[in-house]
Amino acid sequence: MEICYGPTNASAEALTFLLQSSPAIETLMIRSCGTWSSAGSWNWDLASVESCLHHLKNLYLYGFAGAADDVDFLRFVLKHAIVLESVNLRSKEIDVDENARNVVRGFRRASPKCVVRLQALNVPSLYL
């Protein structure tokens, strides 16, 4: 399933509803249509999206900027997606912020076999 995510609280609520309505989703692609910005968006109650995260195997985030909301969303998914195999982060920027890479490397992963790739435009993937 692929969605385009905008910079509003309504987008966060819509994404939550989508995940609640798609409990067996295995692949999720999110295209950022602007900076993710919403107070408390990713302070989800795990029970509200847990069934989806127990089936999610692949996550693609296009437009990953390393902003606080990007990072909070990624942290939440990595912490709770128990069968996650791959996370592919695609940045719009030529150079991905080194600090964001270091932060993502330190995130706890519920799935021991999860591989995180971070790729900037026209640059080979970096494994985190």
UniProtKB/TrEMBL annotation:
<protein>
    <recommendedName>
        <fullName>FBD domain-containing protein</fullName>
    </recommendedName>
</protein>
<dbReference type="Pfam" id="PF08387">
    <property type="entry name" value="FBD"/>
</dbReference>
<feature type="domain" description="FBD">
    <location>
        <begin position="50"/>
        <end position="119"/>
    </location>
</feature>
<dbReference type="InterPro" id="IPR006566">
    <property type="entry name" value="FBD"/>
</dbReference>
